[in-house]
Amino acid sequence: MSTPIRVIVVDDEELARARIKGLLEDFEDLECVGEAENGLEAVERIRELSPDVVFLDIQMPGMDGFEVLAALDDVPLVIFATAYDEYALKAFEVNSIDYLLKPIEKERLAEAVGRARELLAGGPELGREIERIAGLVRTRGVDRLPVTRGKKIVLVDHADIAWIEASEGLVFVHTKEQRYIVNTTMADLEGRLDPGTFFRTHRSSIVNLNHVVEIVPWFSGKYKVVVDDAERSELVLSRARAKALRAIFPW
């Protein structure tokens, strides 16, 4: 017997989750390994369980379906299941494999499952498909960044990020009052954030230019950039990056 397709069902309505799970029982090669009732829980479950396919609602408290996908580094195959048809274009912009309108009909569900089954049997093509989904999701322009503090996932507005640092193998996001861990790399963040607002001062730091309050000469042609967080943090500005920053803030 082949390995079953692992599925997670995400919806803020218990009856809707039960409906989808009940329909999925007719497919012998599918296994529902988990469910979530909101976007924050969905991110946790997907990271924890690594499903092959996610049935994902769009309008949910905390995070909507699109923000859930933007929070993930490894994006599974996605089948949106929603009561609203106005999100269809956005859904296919992030390359979901299907878009089901509630109440979901068994025939339409079978089509979506068949599409997922074909992709999962595609070997190397599946990896390319998932990477393409991930790339499209990350470039959608969502203006909140999912970060972690303890066991909680917090959504931080890009405008509230003062600076970002890489330290001891981890990446931290600083607001004026808090520090959070973000589950990604500096290179990924640099590519995801608005380059007109966020500036790489050094290989280990990125600053939000709207939070810069001082540029202080240091030594050997280097400077320190002071930000407006509670600690008045000083970020090293390398000589190579000082010229680029002068083009933005002439001094």
Strand content: 25-35%
Give the end-to-end Cα distance, rounded to a whole number of Å: 69 Å
Oligomer: single chain
User: How many domain regions?
Assistant: 2
What CATH calls the topology of the largest domain is Rossmann fold
Instruction: Summarize the helix and strand pattern as letters.
Output: EHEHEHEHEHHEEEEEHEEEEEH
Instruction: Choose one word for the global shape.
Output: elongated
Biggest beta-sheet profile: 5 strands, parallel
Structural class determined from secondary elements: alpha/beta
Number of helices: 8
Set out the fold topology.
Blueprint: E1 5-10, H1 14-24, E2 30-36, H2 39-49, E3 53-56, H3 65-70, E4 77-82, H4 88-93, E5 98-101, H5 106-120, H6 124-138, E6 144-149, E7 152-157, E8 163-167, E9 170-174, E10 179-181, H7 186-192, E11 198-202, E12 205-208, E13 212-217, E14 223-227, E15 234-237, H8 239-248
Parallel strand pairs: 1-2, 1-3, 3-4, 4-5
Antiparallel strand pairs: 6-7, 8-9, 8-12, 9-10, 11-12, 13-14, 14-15
Describe this structure in words.
This protein is α/β, with parallel strands linked by helices and 251 residues long. It has two domains: 134 residues, Rossmann fold (3-Layer(aba) Sandwich); 104 residues, Beta Barrel (OB fold (Dihydrolipoamide Acetyltransferase, E2P)), CATH 2.40.50.1020. The chain has eight helices and 15 strands. It has a five-stranded parallel beta sheet with strand order 2-1-3-4-5, sandwiched between helices. The chain has a five-stranded antiparallel beta sheet with strand order 10-9-8-12-11. The protein has a three-stranded antiparallel beta sheet with strand order 13-14-15. A hairpin with a 5-residue loop joins strand 13 and strand 14.
